[in-house]
Amino acid sequence: MQYFVTAIGTESGKTLISAILTEALKADYWKPIQAGEPGDTERVQELVSNPITKFHPETHRLKLPASPHAAAKYEHKAIALDDFILPETNNDVIVEGAGGVLVPLNDHDFVIDIAKELNCEVVLVANLYLGSINHTLLTVDYLKRNDIPVKGIIFNGEGNEESERIIEKHSGYKVLLRLPKLSLVNQNIIQYWADELMLNWYA
């Protein structure tokens, strides 16, 4: 099975959540597009401690920290949806997206189209801030209208009980994890939250 980690925006915590998912499922990890340095693959490698996970190279690794379509244009390159082929593996794969669902790859396609093209189930990451209810429910609406399967939602960062309640109510998504704001992130912390995630994953 392949799971596509997307979020309600940039800097929502996709890489941290991807590390937790990768550790929890002992899955392989793949970031199809890296725009900017340092790379997320290297960060997840630092945090994952199980001996099973394999890390697959990016399809596009771009220098400019920008939207993929802009970063590619800066290097006189173009990104096409059919560039993306799932890595060959017998393992589950955690696929980490870039930014939110409607970040453009080119003039026609968006990041979420990679999930559709590769038949991935989505894990949606939502961080909580003023305006995040709107951003989350707009993302949920897009996923539902486009019949994109969603495994569940993960709330990341400082909690907000009322925001979480209303998002749960209107999304109908299963909450896979409520990850508090972490002051320290290392392999032991990732393993702890991976174990917590698994309590809900199959429930």
TrEMBL record:
Its cofactor is Mg(2+). Keywords: ATP-binding, Biotin biosynthesis, Cytoplasm, Ligase, Magnesium, Metal-binding, Nucleotide-binding. GO terms for molecular function: ATP binding; dethiobiotin synthase activity; magnesium ion binding. Pathway: Cofactor biosynthesis; biotin biosynthesis; biotin from 7,8-diaminononanoate: step 1/2. One of its GO terms (cellular component) is cytosol. The keyword Ligase applies. Catalyzes a mechanistically unusual reaction, the ATP-dependent insertion of CO2 between the N7 and N8 nitrogen atoms of 7,8-diaminopelargonic acid (DAPA, also called 7,8-diammoniononanoate) to form a ureido ring. Belongs to the dethiobiotin synthetase family. This is ATP-dependent dethiobiotin synthetase BioD. It comes from Roseivirga pacifica. The lineage of its organism: Bacteria, Pseudomonadati, Bacteroidota, Cytophagia, Cytophagales.
